């Protein structure tokens, strides 16, 4: 029984080898077709490497640090609790916490402000929106439409401008295109407050400038929002300080004028000295108020500096950028290999189909 099974295995192996040799001989007869199609594929691959525009990726990463958000001892206690495995949440909260910040980067308002960023290229001032439109061939199509021909994106049009609607519509299309194909913003590690921005486009300079400009726009918005209350408080104190200083200067001048009017005055006429005394009281009162306001203003400046978050760029895009450009040799090899493989697959499939028909 064992000998019979062994013989069957040998027969099966011989049959398999025979079939493989049969297929090999068949393909060998078709070598001219395989080589010809492989050469055509290599030529097509080479042509594709010339035609295809490479995509350039500008990568930028930065960290956000809120010096006033930890809450002193509370922040230390929360940090200690998290080390022991207790999930106490994020103490900073707000629109800039965790995944919220990546959505701020991808918001339409931030992207549109970035697109209006002015840049100098070849001695000419333009905007990132104009570069995008030109790079993607939109300008030629816009010039064919009388309503869109005179629309440019150097600066945002006034609310009463008739072209504002069309301008906003084009910006909306650019925004959707960027979000779908070009812009990636993510926080790779949830435990680390580092944001990564990847901008991918066929224009190397556009990728670099957009990534840097978007980081700056969001950073300015972030700083302005987080320190808004402290800045408002400082502005109010500075206005009050300037007002009291003006009052004090006026009171000092008034004392001098009153003293001049009572020079060599008869000591019996004390009523004439009343304006001078009143002015001196004003000087003392305004002086005391000014001293307190100056102290409060300096404290407000310290508070503003403490409440202003730190934006630290970790990695910025450096030219030349990484790209997915297909080399000429790779185009030849991949095209030839793909052409030969598809030809072999087609010949095998054709013969198998014919065997079923016959």
Task: Give a written overview of the molecule.
GO terms for molecular function: protein tyrosine kinase activity. InterPro entries: Bact_polysacc_biosynth/exp, LPS_length_determ_N. Its main location: membrane. 15% of the residues are buried. With 358 residues, this protein is an alpha+beta fold. It has twelve helices and seven strands. Helix 2 crosses helix 12 and helix 10 packs antiparallel against helix 11. The radius of gyration is 38 Å and the shape is elongated. The longest helix has 34 residues, at 228-261. The protein has three domains: 2-52 and 327-357, no CATH class; 56-226 and 309-323, 2-Layer Sandwich (Bacterial polysaccharide co-polymerase-like); 230-307. Residues 69-93 have low confidence and may be disordered. Strand 2 and strand 3 (124-127) form a beta hairpin.
Secondary structure topology:
Layout: H1 2-29, H2 31-51, E1 56-65, H3 73-83, H4 99-105, H5 108-115, E2 118-121, E3 124-127, H6 128-135, H7 138-144, H8 164-182, E4 183-186, E5 194-201, H9 204-226, H10 228-261, H11 274-307, E6 310-315, E7 322-323, H12 328-357
Antiparallel strand pairs: 1-5, 1-6, 1-7, 2-3, 4-5
Helix pairs in contact: 2-12, 5-9, 10-11
């Amino acid at each position: 029984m064992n000998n019979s099974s062994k013989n069957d295995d040998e027969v099966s192996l011989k049959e398999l080898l025979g079939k493989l040799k049969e297929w090999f001989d068949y393909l060998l007869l078709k070598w001219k077709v395989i080589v010809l199609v492989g050469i055509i594929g290599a030529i097509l691959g080479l042509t594709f490497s010339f035609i295809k525009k490479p995509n350039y990726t500008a990568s930028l990463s930065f960290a956000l640090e809120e010096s006033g958000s930890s809450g002193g001892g509370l922040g230390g206690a929360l940090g200690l609790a998290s080390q022991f495995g207790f999930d106490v949440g994020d103490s900073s909260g707000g629109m800039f916490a965790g995944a919220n910040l990546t959505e701020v980067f991808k918001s339409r308002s931030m992207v549109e402000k970035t697109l209006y960023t002015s840049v100098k290229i070849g001695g000419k001032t333009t905007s990132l929106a104009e570069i995008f439109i030109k790079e993607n061939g939109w300008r030629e199509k816009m010039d064919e439409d009388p309503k869109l021909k005179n629309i440019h994106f150097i600066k945002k049009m006034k609310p009463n401008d008739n072209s504002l609607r069309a301008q906003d519509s084009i910006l909306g299309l650019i925004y959707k295109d960027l979000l779908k194909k070009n812009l990636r913003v993510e926080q790779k590690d949830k435990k680390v407050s580092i944001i990564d921005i990847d901008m991918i486009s066929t224009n190397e300079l556009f990728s670099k400038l957009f990534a840097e400009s978007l980081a700056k726009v969001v950073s300015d918005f972030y700083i302005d929002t987080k320190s808004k209350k402290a800045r408002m408080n400082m502005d109010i104190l500075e206005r009050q300080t300037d007002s009291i200083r003006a009052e004090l200067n006026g009171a000092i001048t008034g004392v001098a004028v009153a003293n001049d009017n009572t020079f060599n005055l008869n000591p019996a006429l004390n009523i004439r000295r009343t304006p001078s005394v009143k002015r001196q009281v004003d000087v003392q009162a305004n002086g005391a108020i000014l001293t307190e306001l100056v102290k409060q203003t300096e404290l407000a400046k310290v508070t503003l500096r403490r409440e202003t978050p730190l934006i630290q760029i970790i990695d910025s895009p450096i030219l030349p950028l990484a790209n997915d450009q297909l080399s000429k040799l790779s185009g030849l090899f991949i095209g030839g290999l793909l052409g030969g493989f598809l030809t072999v697959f087609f010949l095998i499939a054709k013969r198998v189909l014919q065997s079923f028909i016959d």
